Amino acid sequence: MSSKKEEKHTQRRKEILEAAERCFIKRGIHTCSMQQLCEEAKLSPGQVYRYYESKEDIILTLAEKEREATRELIRFIDSNQSNIGAAMQSAIPYIIRDITDGSYARMTLEFVGEASRNKAVADTLLNIEEELLESFNCAITESQKAGTLARSLDPETTTALLLSLFDGVSGRSAFRPIKDKDKLIAALQDWIKAILS
């Protein structure tokens, strides 16, 4: 495939994914039909099937996209293992910007719902979760060894609480937009400092 054709192919795949996200947010992953998705993409079913084999293929591609976004956070955590508290304080503005985006928050809830019905989606989300848990657990342990984090903290419990905090903020954002994100960021930075010190 020539580079121009490759670019066009990549662009069309991206456009279909964006249309799928809009359709899934409006109608829900489970209830959105391929016909509705095609209408949202302004393409015929034949055109969509040239790029994706099925609705499930689109769902799994979107889940993999989420996995790659989470890997960025994992790379950040892995490169700051000796002081995870300071690293998380600096990362909070970026994390909050992403997880409080209404579309992102609603899509995340849709993925969780779909995972209860679709083993392939559940497996992808569980793999993402495992990678993130392992990264946080390791960073907390290394920070404790470096003396930047209290040894009394249990890594697994601390990780679970942190991720639950972020999940809760994101889940609430799906239904109630956060009016003052700067205030939320400052409060979370204070909490992180208090917990991870």
Q: What is the rounded distance between the termini?
A: 53 Å
Helix content: over 70%
Uncertain runs: none
Number of strands: 0
Can you write the helix and strand succession as a string? HHHHHHHHH
Query: What gyration radius follows from the Cα positions, in whole Å?
Result: 19 Å
Descriptive account of the structure:
- This protein is mainly α.
- Helix content is 79%, strand content 0%.
- It has helices spanning 3-27, 34-41, 45-51, 55-78, 84-99, 102-115, 119-146, 155-173, 181-195.
- Helix 5 packs antiparallel against helix 9, helix 6 crosses helix 7 (119-146) and helix 6 (102-115) packs across helix 8.
- The longest helix has 28 residues, at 119-146.
- The mean pLDDT is 92.
In short:
By secondary structure, the chain is mainly alpha-helical.
Please specify the SSE layout and strand pairing.
Blueprint (H helix, E strand, L loop, with lengths): L2 H25 L6 H8 L3 H7 L3 H24 L5 H16 L2 H14 L3 H28 L8 H19 L7 H15 L2
Helix pairs in contact: 1-2, 1-4, 1-6, 4-7, 5-9, 6-7, 6-8, 7-8
Features:
9 helices; 79% helix; Tetracycline Repressor, domain 2; 197 residues; Arc Repressor Mutant, subunit A; mainly alpha; elongated
